[in-house]
Amino acid sequence: MPFSAATSRRSRLAYSTLALLLAGAAGAVNATSFFAFGHHITHMTGHVSEVGEAVANGQWGGALVAGRMVFSFLVGAITAAALLDASRHRHRGRHAPALLVETVTLGAVGLWAYEHPDANEPTLMWGLAFAMGLQNALVTRVSGAVVRTTHLTGVLTDIGIQTVRMVVWVRDGARERGLRGLWNKVLDLPSAEQFERTRLHLGLAFAFLTGSILGSVLFLHYGAPAMAVPCVVLLLVMALDISPAGSHIPATSS
Questions:
Q1: Number of DSSP helices (H) and strands (E) in the chain, helices first
Q2: Burial class (CB in 10 A: 0-12, 13-18, 19+), 69
């Protein structure tokens, strides 16, 4: 677990850096896919609902399109789990194979879309869904199911819960020592250990939003080459994972 008492501060920082960068990349991919194909690729709940709605209306073609995206996401998750299991004994670079597959997939989608700008090829959507399933499984394994980076439902839920915890924590300080206690608690809030995960979740939401904005702006101005941005981010994450700093990223959970 990246935020357990047994995890060093350096390991928590390495994990947080990896998670924030991947959240930014996912935000960029999600925004780009919407402008390119009219779908938010990482929204698997919506795609499963689309399957149900299409089946209910007898629209088997629509059900097949949405179902293939769900299946591609699942295949990506399976691929990530298999690659992580195969490299679990490495001292560092444990996540590089999965990150490389994701980078190559996104790069291939971007290159094909650039070479065929007027083609509406559904295979590209499946490729993006595969890449996001791979990334989601990667971060889920690394974090022990604490964090996902391709969607924010759980992150925002945790932020809401933790906000109440922070308010109660500050209030207790006021009860113990009055205004001085209240002030001290407020000052300690940005560095309090028990809220480290909360700060990470806030960072993930901001990183995903930043990636969405950047991906949207670049796609509207440059088209398919905007896919190079998440690829560069993934290459940076790979470099960090292979470097000596990568040894401080928590090992994947079984």
A1: 8, 0
A2: buried
Residues in the chain, how many? Answer: 254
- Residuewise pLDDT in 10s, the chain (254 residues): 455 555 566 667 777 888 888 888 888 988 888 887 777 887 788 888 888 999 998 888 888 988 888 999 999 999 999 998 887 777 777 888 999 999 999 999 989 888 877 766 778 888 899 998 998 888 777 665 556 666 777 788 888 888 888 888 778 777 777 677 677 777 777 777 777 788 888 888 899 899 999 999 999 998 888 888 899 999 988 888 787 655 555 555 54
CATH number for position 222:
1.20.1250
The answer, as to whether pTM is greater than 0.90, is: no
254 lies in some domain: no
